[in-house]
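Replying to the earlier thread about multi-chain prediction with a worked example.

Input:
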Amino acid sequence: MSIFNFKIEKKIPNFLGRAGVLTTPHGEILTPSFVVVGTKGTVKSVTPEQLINNGVQVTLANTYHLYLQPGDELIRDAGGLHKFMNWNGPLMTDSGGFQVFSLGVAYGKEISKVVTVTDPSLLISERSSVDDGVPRLATIGNDGVSFRSHIDGSLHYITPEKSIEIQHNLGADIIFAFDECTSPTENNRYQEEALSRTHAWAKRSLIEHKKRELIKDTTPAILEVQPQLASEVVPLGFRTPSFPQALFGIVQGGRSEILRKKSAEVIGSMDFDGFGIGGSFAKEDMSTAVKWVNEILPEEKPRHLLGIGEPEDLFMGVENGVDLFDCVGPTRIARNGTLFTKNGKINILNAKFVKDFNIIDSGCECYTCINYTRSYMSHLFRAKEMLGATLASIHNIYFINKLVSDMRKSILEDNFFDFKEEFLKNYLS
RNA sequence: GCGUCGGUGGUAGAGCGGUCAAUUACAACAGACUGUAAAUCUGUCGCCUUCGGGCUACGUAGGUUCAAAUCCUACCCGACGCA
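Result:
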């Protein structure tokens, strides 16, 4: 019944990995696939045409940011986020759950999505040591989260129901349950407490979503239209999307095998259209966590590893049964002058590139590499010209999408591990 | 020619007797960035170092002082004003 058909085309023998096709109201996503992040309804410095021309199938925007600016109701009235941002392909929105983390415990600290430590046991700390008096913009309650706007300081309260309401107003094809992304530095007791909250919020998100989908199905064209206005008079505005939206539940559980598996069972048994795997990881924990979870989640539904996007991590995820990834990495590092090449990342601001008239990555067929040299890129970045950010983003977006697309091809051609070995040998050398 | 003001590290520009190898910004040189608080942030930025410190530096040359980028004298250079 759902038009969110997910078809698995081929599996990696004896592994969890697979290649598939996920159908959405705005087109198919060939998986595994990389989702480019456009938090505020734009992939920074890149137009939708440039995204499409460089291999992007699907983009992801953010509930929290768009709710604050320009407002979800405005976007609804504009005809939905697809139309507003001129992205007509598959579109996702994150729930704001990551901001519970990034504007909460992680605010003003050296904690990020992936923590690199040599000894993971160092991560276990008392909550009090994390809470060192640095003011936070997000405070967690059992019913929801209070956010202090990072834009103007105003106070906002987001509950699971509110997050779903916003995401229905925004109208992406795939939306996420409201969750609490925890820091790997939290102790086990806190992880357990946060997990039960995330599970309760998942259920509430699902109920709210179903309720809204039901109304949508019965009166698809005139939902929330003022009675006196016929739908043809208000062709697109003033209504949530007339197409169904998919809701993905999010698995958490920190570094604990017990909690991760428990979460996969609890979330996996709920009637979600797919699943996100969330949390901030210690790098060395990531593969085990993903594996524990994907062994339990229903095989026939798509899985999205939230916020992960380093090439080596993408191989890990695909091998362990992840279908979708999103990550700010490729575009953020691009804006800061770091570019992917098959032989590893380069910082185009380094002195050695000033007179390097080669292209960024030999053999690359992206718009940037077809037309420009490392020397020119170096010049744009040194001169702080805007085009530098655009051309660098285009290159990194092309690179990462090509990489995942090649992984998919290798699964279909039964040589995933050969491809992985060959790529990583060059990339990590 | 006289007068006035000024000459500080790659640049601009603080400092105006000790706490000055010299605030700050920019440039330069590196690094970081993983569901975007991010076109951002961090470090280095005279030479040497066993990292304690040592040496050479604020136009040039002298001088005063326990101590000078800071005060005095002469000279050189620049800007402006008057001839």
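The longest helix of chain A spans residues 188-218.

Feel free to reuse this layout for your own posts.
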